[in-house]
Amino acid sequence: MNRRAGNAGPSLSTLAFVESPVQLLNVLEWAHTHALSGAAGAQASGPGAARSVPPQVRRTVADGEPSAGRDLTVVVLSPTDPMTRGQLRRMADLARDEGYEVRWEEARGGTTAPFHTIGGLAGALRRADRIVMGDPFSRYVQLLLTITRARDLVVVDDGTATMEFVAQLARGERLVRWHRKGGRPGPRDLLFAPVSSSARRRLTPSAGRRVEVFSSMPVEEVPDGVTVTANGFGWTRARFGPPRITKGADMVGTSLVETGVVDGDRYVEAVRGLAKAHGADRYFAHRRESTEKLRRLATETGLEIVRPDLPLELIARRGPIGRTILSFPSTVVHTLPLALAGTGVRIAVCDIDPAWLTEHASPRAQGFLSGVTGTAKDVHRLASVAAPA
Description:
Layout: E1 14-18, H1 21-33, H2 55-62, E2 72-77, H3 82-97, E3 101-105, H4 113-127, E4 130-133, H5 139-145, E5 152-156, H6 161-171, H7 187-202, E6 210-215, E7 226-230, H8 234-239, E8 245-252, H9 264-278, E9 280-284, H10 291-301, E10 304-306, H11 312-318, E11 321-327, H12 332-339, E12 346-350, H13 365-374, E13 380-382
Parallel strand pairs: 1-2, 1-4, 2-3, 4-5, 5-6, 6-7, 8-9, 8-11, 9-10, 11-12, 12-13
Helix pairs in contact: 1-3, 5-7, 9-10, 11-12
């Protein structure tokens, strides 16, 4: 555990902003690592169950009475995607079970929603001693950073984007998601540029500002003054599992097609080849994968398509899960070995063939994806599969 003097424990008023289930999971992991206490202890009700606190304790927190858990308030900036919203609601329940206050904001529920959300959060932002965020690239979060006076800022994992954020911060570059880097800024990018620049300055450590990055991803270029704390998924292992291991193989989906990086036909061919070669039965869909693509995968590969109701780290830890998990380069090649430590499950990663990339893919997409796989620990690296005949 990496604690910093004056920046750990429940003495600081902390406001966390999340926009995805994985971000909320990693806020809980961060709170566990820094020993922030919830409203009450909890007891598991059986193998694979999450802790829960008595209903009367949860009501006390909701009614606004003092408790240790109120030192951490999680603000969900809810997206509109039904799959993401469903997982976020499940994660919000787990956070409440830990005794933390959760504030659900319909941040994208119409043209006036952002104004209502930001206006309603302004007072809490100014009072907070510490801000935790899951996505420093988010325009919503960057806008909120212009309001806060917090001296402590924490960035928790939002997947492979964390690696890019730290590298860009170290090099003093503007904050741009890796799959968009190399493209020309659009009109909205130019309009928002002053806010983005302000956010980058606020995320740069100074004499009066401390910055922590809480990550399970490899961080090689550490900016001066930034504290990096390892996310070992201790909360996940303590609350779930160990899982029942099946004899077969499971496959993890990716949204690389949806983000315009990988060609859809090539992706389906690769999934079919991997499933046949390794005897995979199930395909755990990424929350951003399109219904049309998943329907095609089910038809052309014979895989059972599973839409998880929680982040995959929790699904895998809860079980049952295959003895081998097949994945393309993504966050899970770093997180699953930690969440499944000691279970004997093997993580196998298939590289992305350069021929699969679309003409719109960022010029640095291949190198970035290769780096995601190459820096992962405790995984078995597979050569990219050839298209089936």
